[in-house]
Amino acid sequence: MKKYCIDLSVKEVRHINDKYVLLILTDSQPLPEMLPGQFVEVRVDDSPQTFLRRPISINDVDYHNNELHLLVACIGDGTRRLGRLLPGDTLNVMLPLGNGFTLPAENSKRHLLVGGGVGVAPLLYLGRKIREMGAEPTFLLGARSAGDLLLLDNFRALGRVFITTEDGTEGERGFVTDHSLWSSEQFDLISTCGPKPMMAAVSRKAQNIGTECEVSLENKMACGLGACLCCVEKTNDRGNICICTEGPVINSKRLTW
Question: pTM (2 decimals)?
C-alpha cells in the first residue's frame, strides 16, 4: 500500500477528559485508503524535547466527511503538545503504516474485539469495517474505573458493548478475561489491543477455547519504516521482526509470550 507524508489540517480537538483528546484531521484532497489496525507517524512541532515522530493508531476514518480521527493519550511532552493543537493548525503525518487486522470472512459473523485503555483506539475503525461488511462486532472493553472508559457511545453505535472495570464502577468487576461473555458465547475471530499483559492473557484465553486471535502490538516505533529497529519483537517462526512493517497486527500464535 502506498505511503504518504502530508500536511493535514486540524478540524476539531475534542477533550475527552484530562488525559485524552480526539484529534479530527482533514485535507483539501481525498484521504488515502487506510485499513483498521494501521497507524500514522506524527511530527510534533514546537516541542524541543520531541525529536522523533510519534506513532498513533488510526482510531477512525470518515471518508464521507474526509476525516481522520486520532485518539491521543497526553502523557509526554510530545503528546501533550498534540493535545494543545487548535482548529486550523497543521499536523504533518506519515500514513498509512503497518499491516492491519484481518477482516472477517464472508461466512463469519462472530467477531470479538477486546480493548483496554487507549488500546481501544484501533478497534473502533475495525468495528466500523465489520459493520459495513454486514456483520455485527462485539466489543469487550476494560478499564481501571468507569471514568477511564473511552468513546463508549461510538462503540455502541456499531455493535454490542460489554465492559469490565477493575473497581467494579461499570460493567463486571475484574479484567476483560474475567467477563462472563467468555463462557456464554463463542466467536470465530478475536482481535485485541491494549497493555501487553492484557493482550497476552486474551491470547491465552483464545488458545484455550480454540479461537484465532490477532493482537496489535504497541512497541516503540521511531521511524515506522523498519529502519531504526526500535520495535523489534521475537517470533516463533521468523526470529526477530520489525513490528512497524510486519505488524503492528500479528497472529498471537507467532509470539513467544
Answer: 0.96
